[in-house]
Amino acid sequence: MNNSNIYIFIKRKTIMKELLLAVIYSIALLSAATTSANNNKLNTVAIFDAQHPPGNIAITPSGRKFLSIHGFYGQKQKIMELFKDGTTKPYPNEAWAYAYNNGKGFYDVLGINVSANGILWMLDTSGPDHAGRLVGWDTINEQLHKIIYLAKPTITETSFLNDLAVDNKNGYIYIADTAQGSQAAIITVNIKTGAARRVLQNSHYTTAENINIVIEGRTMKIGGQAARLGVNPITLEPNENWLYFGSMSGTSIYRIATSAMIDESLSSKALEQKVERYGTKPISDGIIVDGGGNVYVTDITNGAIGVVKPSGDYEVLFKNERLVWPDGFSYGADDKIYFTVNELHRSPPLNDGKDGSQGQFSVLSFEPLVKGKVGR
Fold first, then answer.
1. Which residues are CB-neighbours of 318 under 8 A, at least 6 positions away?
2. How many other CB atoms are there within 10 angstroms of residue 244's CB atom?
3. Residue 104 sits in which domain range?
4. Residue 295 forms beta bridges with which residues?
């Protein structure tokens, strides 16, 4: 190759490189512009004061909205109902909405979900001196429906009963127990009998990955150690044929057929072999699935809401200053997806014992890519 040809070759290579960089830059700009445009479609539904930091949200078929009050902030009130004008009231009533006392009230509720027949299921966490509970409240007749107790060996010494999904078709509830290390697991509960089983424990599908949760330049720590949180996000798709889940400190969304989850004849190994990897996700808290198989994710480290497409690819939908630890989702009767924001990284357990919250407690909503089903 003579000098002239070498020059032409280098010149072409330089031009191709510049074109490639230009294309990449254009795609990045288009992605940023799309996210910015999407932010205009993100609606603030309600803003709460420091006494009402929201945990999760549950919406009934008739459109009533209920929220747990996150226990990391130490409030005495545990549950509230949210009205259309943005006001709230203790729920179910004054006797039950607050800390446990003489058989009524709650120890600490985070996960809540509503069944198709209007039963609000509230997941009351366990402690050294008490079992965990699933408390079902009839939101139509406004009365206690049922209490299901969750005791050892269904729970462990390190159990953190975090979130739940209600399977109306099969009559089961699936609980994400974010216990420490390999003890993280999913608990299946037969609503009719109250029988409960602990499954997928000591599995890489439910155990945290070795990655730090870094928000605003700070690594989240629990008990002085970098937080490693196992299975937490959990939900059902609208037809209730598949249960979707993943570790909070994890980069994968998994799914398993509900028929396998309730099949007690399957061994632990056989059940684990039924799990499928669905796609890639960021470190996240809540998830929800629409009718098109899009899995929406609260992307806590990036202050964003994203979506895992059926292709398995992850895409950011909204990135906004309002998204300061987006937490739990619920699908509304108006075909919008609602979610909570609670600044959890600024709560005492994740902030060296200090409450550094800045009043950014809220519920927001957006329209899904494909319609889903009320609840989640």
1. 35, 38, 39, 41, 42, 304, 305, 366
2. 23
3. 44-366
4. 289, 308
What CA–CA distances, in Å, run from 260 to 104, 114, 166, 207, 267?
35, 23, 16, 20, 11
Give the integer Cα–Cα distance in Å for 76 and 70: 10
Q: Is residue 326 part of a domain?
A: yes
Q: Rounded to whole angstroms, what are the CA distances from 131 to 109, 197, 238?
A: 13, 15, 31
Q: Which residue has the tokens 């800045």?
A: 358
For residues 138 and 278, state if they share a domain. Answer: yes
- Whether the pLDDT of residue 152 is over 80: the answer is yes
pLDDT tens figures, 124-150? 999 999 999 999 999 999 999 999 999
CB-based contact 34:355 (threshold 8 Å): no
- Would you state the structure tokens that stand for residue 255, as one six-digit string? 């799914």
d(CA 83, CA 293): 30
Within 13 Å, how many C-alpha atoms sit on residue 161's CB side? 33
Residues in the chain: 376
Residue 49 in any domain: the answer is yes
Same domain, 217 and 128: yes
Which residue, among 245, 200, 220, has the nearest Cα to 344 in the 3D structure? 220
pLDDT of residue 113: 98
pLDDT category at 3 given cuts 50, 70, 90 is: low
d(CA 226, CA 213): 8
Report pTM.
Answer: 0.90
